[in-house]
Amino acid sequence: MKPETLAIHSGNLYKTDTGDVTPPINLSTTFLRNEEGGYSGGHMYSRVSNPNRSALEAVLSELEGGLEACAFSSGNTAGMSLFQALKPGSHIIAPDDMYWGFKKQLQSIFADTLEIDFIDLTQPALAEQHIKENTVMIWVETPSNPLLKVTDLKAISAIAKKHGLVLACDSTFASPCLQNPISWGADIVMHSSTKYIGGHSDVLGGVLITAAKTELWEKIRNVQQIGGAVPSPFDCFLLLRSIKTLPYRMRGHSTNGMALARHLQQHPKVEAVYYPGLPEHPQHDVAREQMTDFGGMLSILVKGGATEARKVVNTVKIFAQATSLGGVESLIEHRASVEGPDTKTPQNLIRISVGLEHIDDLIADFDQALG
Ligand SMILES: *Cc1c(COP(=O)(O)O)cnc(C)c1O
């Protein structure tokens, strides 16, 4: 089945006596045992599994073309569960433009247990040069946050395979509808489902999806079930509800994203636009090959510095000045001031999450803000 059909039907997994067309929210934390001591309903205790979470994991795994998924209570904990499943002393290669929260995790929580090199993965050969005896994984993020760098998944996967390394991909900016890293050779895909998958800025979540049942995947499942950072049945219900419209939302985000990127590119007050859909983007050809469309995330450099950039985020009216991304409403953010004094993000950079409002209104709002 195609994504539009899967998104609507594959989460409706289980049958109830009342004939519900959409799955009910199953709040029970525990499930009855039968006379033989087994669990006829397939669930034992809701930290381990429950109907809403199983349905969510099934649809996400199918949309990514994976084998299984583990859903978590946030994107950060999804990534952290993979880092926790690695053997202490392991070396991992990560992107220089890695999502800020993961960089912080690796540099603080895992500072004593994992070795990390942050590398520009838009040049896959650089990754290969940094492989060491204890390297176990290459983590990529494409498109990346906030510079929208695109990593060639096929090229990086060839390197990972050659050296027997796990390839994991943070695919949050693409969502499962614009890019399927497993089809390009990734072993594990990660999403913050708080973003496009949820799509309405009202639920936190994260997910890991695997291409195969491996020893590492068993460890991740263990971190999920015994660690217990799982989403609630209501969170899973909200995400399942959101996923039904995900393919159509991604079309709208991509159309609006492209139109705003093209408009801003020609604006005299804009120094640069980072959007993988623009032919001028340095990895546009790679993006065109591995993505079906380019999504609603873009960053711009405003002419001037932090003052000029902050003036724009304070003057727009429709774009809400807030962190996060992927919701139906447009958001805008001055990244450097969120990331703090040690950030490498340019001071005049504004990150934009283009929502599903009418593009004419979004363009008019930006024009009045840029002045
Ligand atoms: C938001 C985000 C995360 C973290 O997800 P949370 O749900 O906020 O914990 C990870 N990676 C990327 C690219 C993100 O945008």
Could you please describe the fold and organization of this structure?
α6 links the parallel β4 and β5. This protein folds into 2 domains: 241 residues, Aspartate Aminotransferase, domain 2, CATH 3.40.640.10; 125 residues, Aspartate Aminotransferase, domain 1 (Alpha-Beta Complex). α2 runs parallel beside α9. It contains 14 helices and 12 strands. The model has no long low-confidence stretch (mean pLDDT 96). It is of the alpha/beta class. The strands form 2 sheets. The chain has a 7-stranded mixed sheet with strand order 1-7-6-5-4-2-3, sandwiched between helices. Strands 8-9-12-11-10 form a 5-stranded mixed sheet. It is globular. Bound molecules: pyridoxal-5'-phosphate.
CATH fold label of the largest domain = Aspartate Aminotransferase, domain 2
**What ligands does this structure carry?**
pyridoxal-5'-phosphate
User: What is the overall pLDDT average?
Assistant: 96
Biggest beta sheet summary: 7 strands, mixed
**Global outline:** globular
